[in-house]
Structure formats: C-alpha cells, structure tokens
C-alpha cells in the first residue's frame, strides 16, 4: 500500500469532520501505533502480517488527517528497545522498512502533489547501512515540501534523544560556538530531533496500554494524552474523531498551561542574562553601584551576544545534520553507479 491511502471520506465522515473543524483542531498529532502483534495473534496470522497491516493503517490514518486539516503527524515506528525482540521479528521489521522506504521513493510525484515532507527521527546509525541510505534519499527528496509533515521515529527513544541533545550542546561548547552559560531549556529544545516541529497538541496510544514507552517525553508535557483500547490495525476514522473531541474538551486548560510555561521560560532566560551580565560587570570592576540604565544596557548587550552565539551554533548543528543525510545519499549514488 502507498504511504498515503487514496480515497475520499464518506458523506457522514465529511459531515462529522466539518462539525469537528468548527472547534479548535490539533495541528500536530502523535501516534503510538501499538497492537500489531496482538492483532496478528487475534487473527492467527504471522507477526509480520500484523506489522504490515499496521503500516497500511498508517497510510489510511494520514489520509484522515489530511481531510481533517491536521498538517503534522509523528509516529513511533521503531523503538531502540525493539532491537531486543526476537531476531526474526527484528529482521522482518527491517525488511518492511526497506520495502516501504523504497516504495516512498517510487511515489515522489504523489508526495509532491500533497506537499508531504518526510522526516525520520532517531539514531539512524543503529540501522543497517542500506536502510540508512534509503531514508536519506527519502528525506532529501521531500525536504522542500511544506504543506504537511510526517515525522517517523525510527531507532528512537526519548531518553536517547535527550541524551543526544545534551551531547550536541556539549559539542557546541567544545567548538567554541557557545558558552556553558548559554545552555538552557530553549537551547536543548532546539537540539532535539524534533527541533523543526511544534510540540504535539494531541498524543494517541492504541491497544489499551496507558504509558508513553519513552516516546516524546520532553515534547508532550502540555499535550492532550488519549489512550484507546482499539488495536492499531483496527483503528478507525471514528476513533480519531473521539480523540480529537477529547482534545477539544481540554483545549482551553492545555493552552493556558502552555502560555504560562512560555511566559515563565522567557522570564527565566531574562533572569539568567541579568546574572551573567552582572557577573561580567563584577569581573571588569564595574560591579559596584552603577547607573540602572547602564546595567540595563549591559544586559541588552549580553542578550544580543548570547542570541548571536546560539544562532551560529544552531546553524552549524543543522549543517552537521544535513551533511549526515547528504553523505549517505552520495554513497547511494556511488553504489548505484558502481
């Protein structure tokens, strides 16, 4: 099946979608697509068939999201913890990934038509090299599309992502791009794999499990979490509508919490800048009683310098990440020519 399932909503589905869209709609929805193996056991079929049905359901769900004007979707496709499963199952999942990313490359025209940008988030170095190359080709082929975004978390856990963000910040300090005092919640936010995306408004987990399983722990602090008992391959348009309705019922409280956090973060950064500016004044012998206006100018100067350092660092970090995909793609081209 294609990455985006072709087809239109039924009349009653379109009517329901229009009613839902009269209220606040999530712009970014994340899915923990759980229940593929249980679905296979339920139907007495091979586990691999359950995973294949799970991918087909993702394609169908992406179509529903497009019809509901949800422009960004993030899915938990493969956890680093999944490498601990039986070898035959892991091998089967890797083969499924090969098939689907190869299929994606064959569907570039359709993805361009819908303006779909594919991002693959995770530690891709843990994957077989041929899959890394396929992913690089898919990412680069769609990177300029901007109508909607599909983030595929593959070889991912949130703890690994946060650890990597800290390492990226440490790399910036080692390179002299930023100072240790520049490291903040905002900076770590920008070092995450998801730095190009807003935090999810709504996170949905299927199969009845009530836990996040190390998925987007940082990003879902102020998201609406919905746990549904349906197995992922059996997921329906109506299950999605139910989850969106729960989001709408909680939207006001969630938005208020987000706004308060954003305000607190700005104040926290301002206070940090004041402390650093005061420390610099102290070191230069100007920490004695000083005109308030001069102190304010010192803070503004420090803030501008910090923002300049952070901008340079984030530009360098993005270039480093882009090179990873570009180098992989060059390897694919060289292999094809050989």
From TrEMBL:
Coiled-coil residue spans: none
Recorded superkingdom: Eukaryota
PROSITE patterns (UniProt xref): UPP_SYNTHASE (PS01066)
Entry keyword Transferase: yes
Keyword entries, A-Z: Transferase
EC code(s) of this entry: 2.5.1.-
Pfam families linked to this entry: Prenyltransf
Catalytic activity field: n isopentenyl diphosphate + (2E,6E)-farnesyl diphosphate = a di-trans,poly-cis-polyprenyl diphosphate + n diphosphate
Record-stated family: Belongs to the UPP synthase family.
HAMAP family: ISPT
NCBIfam families: uppS (TIGR00055)
Protein known as: Alkyl transferase
């Amino acid at each position: 099946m294609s990455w985006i399932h072709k087809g239109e909503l039924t009349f009653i589905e379109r009517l329901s979608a229009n009613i839902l869209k009269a209220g606040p709609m999530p712009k970014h929805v994340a899915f923990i697509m759980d229940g593929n193996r249980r679905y296979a056991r339920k139907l007495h079929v091979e586990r691999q068939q359950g995973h294949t049905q799970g991918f087909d359901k993702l394609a169908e769900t992406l179509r529903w999201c497009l019809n509901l004007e949800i422009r960004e979707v993030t899915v938990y496709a493969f956890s680093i913890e999944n490498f601990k499963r039986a070898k035959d199952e892991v091998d089967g999942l890797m083969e499924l990934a090969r098939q689907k990313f190869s299929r994606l490359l064959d569907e570039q025209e359709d993805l361009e038509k819908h303006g779909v940008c594919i991002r693959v988030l995770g530690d891709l170095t843990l994957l077989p090299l041929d899959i890394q190359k396929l992913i690089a080709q898919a990412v680069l082929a769609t990177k300029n599309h901007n109508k909607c975004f599909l983030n595929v978390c593959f070889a991912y856990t949130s703890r690994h992502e946060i650890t990597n963000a800290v390492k990226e910040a440490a790399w910036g300090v080692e390179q002299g791009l930023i100072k240790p005092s520049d490291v903040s919640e905002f900076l770590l936010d920008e070092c995450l794999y998801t730095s190009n995306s807003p935090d999810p408004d709504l996170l949905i987990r299927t199969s009845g499990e009530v836990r996040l399983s190390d998925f987007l722990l940082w990003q879902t602090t102020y998201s609406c979490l919905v746990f549904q008992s349906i197995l992922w391959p059996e997921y329906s348009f109506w299950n999605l509508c139910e989850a969106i309705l729960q989001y709408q019922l909680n939207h006001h409280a969630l938005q208020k919490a987000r706004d308060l956090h954003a305000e607190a973060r700005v104040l926290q950064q301002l206070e940090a800048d004041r402390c650093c500016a005061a420390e610099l004044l102290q070191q230069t012998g100007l920490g004695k009683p000083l005109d308030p206006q001069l102190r304010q100018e010192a803070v503004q100067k420090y803030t501008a310098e910090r923002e300049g350092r952070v901008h340079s660092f984030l530009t360098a970090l993005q270039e480093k990440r882009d090179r990873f995909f570009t180098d992989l793609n060059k390897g694919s081209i060289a292999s094809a020519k050989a």
